[in-house]
Amino acid sequence: MAAIRLTQVNKIYRSRGHAVHAVKDLDLTVEDGEFVAILGPSGCGKTSTLRMIVGLEDITGGDIFFDGQRVNDLDPQARNVAMAFETYALYPNFTIEENLSFPLEVRGVPAAERRKKVHDLAALLRIEDILGQKPAALSGGQQQRVSLGRALIRDPAVFILDEVMSHIDAHLKFQMLFELKRIHRELGKTMIYVTHDQVEALALADRVAVMSNATLQQVGTRNQLYHEPVNVFVADFIGEPPTNFFPAELDPAGDQPVLRAKNAALTFSVAAERGQRLAASGQRDFVVGLRPQNLRLDGTEVGEPPPGGTLTAEVAINEYVGERTVLTLVADGHRFRAQAHAETTLGRGEQVRLRYASSDVMVFDAKTEALVA
Ligand SMILES: Nc1ncnc2c1ncn2[C@@H]1O[C@H](COP(=O)(O)OP(=O)(O)O)[C@@H](O)[C@H]1O
Ligand SMILES: [Mg+2]
Q1: Contacts of 11 (CB under 8 A, 6+ apart)
Q2: Residue of 44, 48, 57, 161 to test ligand 1 pocket, by largest number of atoms within 8 Å of CB
């Protein structure tokens, strides 16, 4: 087992006078036994980070510690980290049992012990019934499990998975996500799961590290990322449909300051104390963020609505998405989305009134894009 700590880790690739800064000043701690996901768009530096943890890539700057021991200069074997890739090359002429047993054989593990380890792991992965088969005979899901098995058989201290579900269809994906969570619970190993898919990251991990542009944006639980995103990027990247953003100006007049959307009559009210704090900051330009889930069609509220405000808008598009309806709305030239009940029959051109709670109004600095408390 191992806790992992990265301090000020940097990766710069250099080739023919050209430099790519793939990871910038990354600080990240993964506790012993914790399941952490690294989430971010393609090219943001996720795989580079993993490869430095595993020892497959030089660290340009900073340090990586396993249980307090600096591992920068240790080779991958000495770090005892296993990385599972989406597709493991399995030996086609070997049975699954032989494929799983092979890494142990190379290490000189005696036959009886190999057999026991393979069978214990097969029970964990629920692949006991296919141990005698050849790889070509397996379904996609079975191959996936065997690939995980290939990584786990060495009993690594840290288990790393890089985009392992990218090419799995949705139904199987949900099953594998569930299985991975179970495997983590049963093994209690430190796991790092890399993905560009927020659904996977949020479903699996204790905490999610969101990266963009080589830089860590925020590390947090699902609730923290959803309710307290540190900046516009995280608020936009986490949540589906994405957060609505409105460039807005603070109108400090009166005892209840409001945020007025640029070039529009749309206003957003925040709690008086927060409004006064915004006014006291001396800043006028902000970006308001409001999640589609937090814009409720007026009249659908059960009980007393929380203190907040209303928006009036016209329906542009009514999309039925799975078990819900997403309305695209227009108000004063601003387009935004609201989530409604699946049965909503509102159509193009209809006027709606939407209610929001002022506590759900996120306010960001227009220049830095950082959340303003
Ligand atoms: N071996 C390499 N040489 C040069 N540039 C690289 C190399 N590997 C990755 N990069 C670049 O580093 C950046 C981060 O890549 P990567 O870590 O693979 O991102 P991710 O896994 O998030 O998609 C990208 O701009 C990519 O093109
Ligand atoms: Mg990658």
Answers
A1: 21, 22, 23, 45, 48, 49, 52, 57, 59, 60
A2: 48
Question: Which residue reads 């993964």 in tokens?
Answer: 30
CATH number of 4-236: 3.40.50.300
Instruction: Assess whether the C-beta atom of 370 lies below 6 angstroms from ligand 1.
Output: no
In the chain, where the domains are located: 4-236, 242-365
Tell me the Ramachandran region of residue 270: left when phi exceeds 0, alpha when psi lies from -120 to 50, beta otherwise.
beta
What 3-state class would DSSP assign to 200?
A: helix
Overall pTM surpassing 0.85 (yes/no)? yes
Q: Which of 47, 164, 216 to mutate to test the pocket of ligand 1 (most atoms within 8 A of CB)?
A: 47
Residue 9 Cα, ligand 1 centroid: separation in angstroms? 15
Mean pLDDT of 17-33: 96
Q: Which ligand is nearest to the CA of 43?
A: 1
Q: Which of 3, 197, 179 is nearest to 81 (CA)?
A: 3
Confidence of residue 86 (pLDDT cuts 50, 70, 90): low
Give the CATH number of domain 242-365: 2.40.50.140
Q: Please list, in sequence order, all residues whose beta carbon lies within 8 angstroms of the beta carbon of residue 39, skipping any fewer than 6 positions away.
A: 46, 194, 195, 196, 197, 198, 201, 208, 209, 210, 211, 237
171-199 per-position pLDDT tens digit: 778 888 888 899 899 889 999 999 999 99
